[in-house]
Amino acid sequence: MTTAPADPMIKQDRVPPSEPVASGPKRSSVARRLIPFGYLSPTIVLITLLMIVPIVMVISYSFRDNVIVQDNSVFAGLANYTEVLTDPDFLAAIKNTGIFITVSMVAHLLLGLGFAMMLNSPLLGNVTKSLFRVVYVLPWLFTIAVIAVIWRLLLDPSGVANYVLQTLGLINEGVNWLGDPGTALWSVTFANIWSGYPFFMISLLAGLQGIPGELYEAASVDGASPWRKFVHVTLPQLRPVIISMAVLDLIWTSQQFALIWMMTGGGPLNSTEMLSTFTYKLAFSEYEFAMASASAVVVLLLTMILAFFYVRQQRER
Amino acid sequence: MATVLPGKAAPGMTQRTRRILMKTALFFGLGLGAIFAGAPVLWMLSTSFKSNGEVFQNPPKLITESFSLDAYTAILTNGAQLRFFLNSYIVAIAVTALTLLVGILAAYAFSRFTFPFSRTINAVIVSVQAVPPITLVIPYFGLVVGLGLYNTYPGLILTHMVFTLPYAIIMLTAYFNTLPKELDESVKVDGGNSWTALWRILVPISVPGLIAVGVYTFMISWNEYLFALALTRTDDMRTVPIGIQLLMGQHSYEWNQMMAMSILGSIPVLILFLVFQRRFIGGLTSGAVKA
Q: InterPro entries per the record (chain B) (predicted)?
């Protein structure tokens, strides 16, 4: 036997003994598995505290009475829900919210698409394009509190909106846009349309720029008119963006509170009462926290239905 | 632009007139759009330079005789109004710093580790974005009062993070995923652990992504209204959006001051947007479509 080959044998023998030592690496592999949870721990604590606990709390409030303000809360069953769901103000709030979010969404989409297509026109130079883009994005840069104040100024009975419309001969006498139950809902909807379309515009502009030029060239070869190109190339290509933007917009607009609260406070005569303002008033004006919780849970369920459609749409893409 | 062949001169002419017509129509549409988008903002600006008596003068004028900065001086020399700005800066800066810190750690876990329940945890974080604020504000009131945080900065900072943290985690995870893993592996070869790899390598090269997320976080917190309204009580704890509303009640409609305050309150967001416009829009659209 020569020593030379023995050495590698010994070395090889020494390798397996290091295997039991591998319990060291094994222990550290348990530790290693815990590493990501270490990084996640602040997030897990915060999400638990800011979402999971509050949702459990609001659901439990909704089945009880005398919550938050008094200590002697008692089980109330579905009483809060029956009271809220049969409240005519709540039903009015559902109807108003439905009108508010659908009209806003359709207008956001039409305006956003129109502006995006104009900005995407090959007839425009780059400087003109970016100039107009900045102007069109403007409404989106102001916080909702500012937007509410701007539109209260413009829509004041002696404000500039009435002056312009009278000068153009569109109305005969000044309208009290926010004070008249017949026009208030349309006025807050208009303000919301103004403030929200830029987000559609930006997303649709990105979508338009992503459509391959060959599709249009092929359509031109087939002799398609601009309208047919729009219907058969542009719209189908934008469809996924349009649908996800539309659902997101319904969710966001349904959560709008500040605009309504500062423009009309839900009035006059509940004509602009939304689910958000109705719930807020129950809680923080009337201190009916249990009933407000029942209303808040209904809002959560309605939002989850919309979110479900959104997620399903995202999966299909 | 295109050279017109002699034989095709006639169709070339009609094409040119058609082009001119289309361009006219386009600029007409663009002009209408610019009035729709810009006129209300212009009117806000113009009103802030008027005296309060001229706000509703008939016929309305864009620039009046008593054009002045009085409304701005009135706001900027009033301690109560300045306090709103101070509060908004304190809350928004703290929210941004904490969101980035917690967001970086979480995004690092999602981007660089495989671990059980990662998909579930991620789904919960994404779903936070859909929970209506009005549903949360009621239990938050109970929680914040219970924790002794009612009418305090920590109460606002903590609750604002429910909006900012999910977005930050989603965006930063996507950003980290674009950076090659070999970068942080090299630190581990040199004996460093994952912690040093994160702070020495990943974070320094992620500065552009961190800025975009930070800007967005700042804007959300600066603009937040519902929690600031419900979770604070005294005027010295109110933020700018609530301050604008308070101005509406207190001074029996000092419209010029309300507009000046609105413009002053919008300046931080406007500056951030203009500076980071490109990065911000790109991040936001991709985030919205992904989230």
A: BP-dep_ABC_trans_perm, MetI-like, MetI-like_sf
